[in-house]
């Protein structure tokens, strides 16, 4: 059975296209999204575009690889770019709380903004409420796009546990701030007195999680103050969330799903592909990262293991038994006896008519005691592999393990392409170490643009 050709993802036409304004790198955690986003941004900038890379990676690897001391909520320009184009590269790392603060400051008068920013409930919400990071990433994306300062925005999505988090968080948080939850919390203030507290107790029955456990008199007052100050802003959260969602669906946006050639990562990638299709969001293709290869792929794992076993085994079958039989034979006994007998001038070997002369003696005759059966210089006597043989056997076994890994990766890729034959794919070979500078990012960009073609590719 012949596999249908797998479409190839051409990265350069994607990043060169002036209509491509946003590239979103998404996928499971730990598959190289941050490195992929940075490499794409660098390559696009060195080909003439003005690019900003937005990362949500707390490890700060992006700053280190780009030669920047640190990244924050303000784009920082990257120096020492190559290429003849007039491009620029900027990088930034999302500050979730600062982004939330900027929204408040932009949509409230100074007095109300101060009341909101100092409110304990707001501080808890902006610092770590579930979904806030994903929502603020989309808020920041909307801000960057509205400024129209960059030709291309490359987004490294948050390390979410589920592909749904990134797509759902903007709508979920917008609904939370503009929904029944807030109205329930505000009910005691509107109803008043004991009746209000009774209503509050009923409302609490539908609440779960940390907020429900923390609810008390002071917490209630903080929430009431927060809601009163934010009252005119709630609709804005929902409106901006909807606008950002439409931005992700726009033709100028391209999603790249990043995955490793592993079962769990590709299962997550397949799920993300299906979700993007359901939401009518433009998928550019799949980046298959950290793909292993071998320069001796023609030597199969089976042949390598067989060769290793042959090196580890004695060189002659039943060698020990054979040599034992040889030592116990009459000829061997006679030879051993004559060679161990003391010699005298009257019994010199040259006086024996049957003794070979010294000039006719075989050149391979050992100079050591012939009774020493452990002579390591004679391959017929050696039952242990040499150091070179042991090393060769070890290398062959390592090669066999690599070939088995390649086979597993190929089967995993084949399952994904069988499920989604329409998705363009490019592969990036695994590197021996981490990427820590612009040269490394440049190398990744080259591999993205001209990487190995997947099996079955046209």
What this model shows, in words?
By secondary structure, the chain is an alpha/beta fold. It has one domain (about 10-295, about 410-450): Rossmann fold (3-Layer(aba) Sandwich), CATH 3.40.50.300. About 50% of the residues lie in helices and about 10% in strands. It is built from 19 helices and 8 strands. It has helices at about 10-15, 35-45, 60-65, 95-105, 110-115, 120-130, 130-145, 165-175, 180-190, 195-205, 210-215, 215-230, 235-250, 265-280, 300-310, 320-330, 330-340, 385-420, 440-450; strands at about 20-25, 50-55, 75, 90-95, 150-155, 255-260, 285-290, 425-430. The protein has an 8-stranded mixed beta sheet with strand order 3-4-2-5-1-6-7-8, with helices on both faces. Helix 14 links the parallel strand 6 and strand 7 (about 285-290). Helix 7 (about 130-145) packs across helix 8. The two termini are about 15 Å apart. It comes from Streptomyces luteolus. InterPro entries: ArsA/GET3_ATPase-like, ATPase_ArsA/GET3, P-loop_NTPase. Pfam families: ArsA_ATPase. This is ArsA family ATPase.
């Amino acid at each position: 059975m012949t596999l249908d050709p797998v479409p190839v993802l051409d990265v350069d036409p994607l990043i060169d296209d002036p209509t491509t304004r946003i590239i979103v790198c998404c996928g499971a955690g730990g598959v190289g999204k941050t490195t992929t986003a940075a490499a794409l941004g660098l390559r696009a900038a060195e080909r003439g575009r003005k690019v900003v890379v937005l990362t949500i990676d707390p490890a700060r690897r992006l700053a280190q690889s780009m030669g920047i001391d640190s990244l924050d909520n303000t784009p920082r320009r990257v120096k020492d770019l190559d290429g003849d184009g007039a491009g620029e590269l900027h990088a930034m790392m999302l500050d979730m709380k600062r982004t939330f603060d900027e929204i408040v400051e932009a949509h409230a008068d100074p007095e109300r903004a101060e009341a909101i920013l100092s409110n304990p409930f707001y501080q808890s919400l902006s610092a770590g409420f579930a979904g806030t990071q994903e929502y603020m990433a989309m808020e920041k994306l909307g801000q960057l796009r509205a400024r129209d300062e960059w030709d291309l925005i490359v987004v490294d999505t948050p390390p979410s546990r589920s592909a749904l988090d990134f797509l759902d968080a903007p709508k979920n948080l917008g609904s939370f701030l503009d929904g029944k939850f807030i109205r329930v919390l505000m009910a005691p203030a509107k109803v008043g007195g004991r009746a209000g507290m009774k209503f509050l107790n009923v409302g609490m029955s539908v609440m779960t999680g940390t907020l429900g456990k923390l609810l008390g008199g002071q917490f209630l007052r903080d929430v009431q103050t927060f809601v009163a100050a934010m009252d005119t802003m709630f609709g804005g959260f929902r409106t901006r969330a909807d606008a950002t969602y439409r931005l992700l669906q726009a033709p100028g946006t391209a999603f790249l799903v990043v995955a490793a050639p592993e079962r769990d990562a590709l299962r997550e990638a397949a799920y993300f592909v299906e979700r993007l299709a359901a939401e009518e969001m433009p998928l550019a293709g799949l980046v298959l990262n950290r793909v292993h290869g071998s320069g001796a792929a023609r030597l199969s794992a089976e042949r390598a293991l067989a060769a290793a076993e042959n090196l580890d085994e004695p060189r002659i079958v039943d060698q020990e038994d054979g040599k034992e039989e040889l030592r116990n034979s009459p000829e061997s006994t006679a030879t051993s006896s004559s060679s161990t007998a003391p010699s005298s001038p009257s019994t010199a070997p040259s006086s024996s008519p049957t003794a070979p002369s010294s000039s006719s003696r075989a050149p391979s005759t050992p100079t050591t005691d012939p009774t020493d059966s452990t002579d390591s210089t004679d391959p017929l006597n050696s039952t242990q592999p040499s150091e070179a043989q042991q090393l060769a056997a070890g290398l062959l076994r390592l090669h066999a393990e690599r070939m088995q890994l390649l086979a597993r990766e190929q089967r995993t890729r084949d399952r994904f392409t069988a499920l989604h034959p329409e998705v363009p794919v490019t592969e990036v070979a695994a590197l021996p170490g981490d990427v820590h500078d612009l040269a490394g990012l440049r190398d990744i960009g080259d591999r993205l643009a001209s990487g190995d073609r997947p099996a079955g590719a046209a």
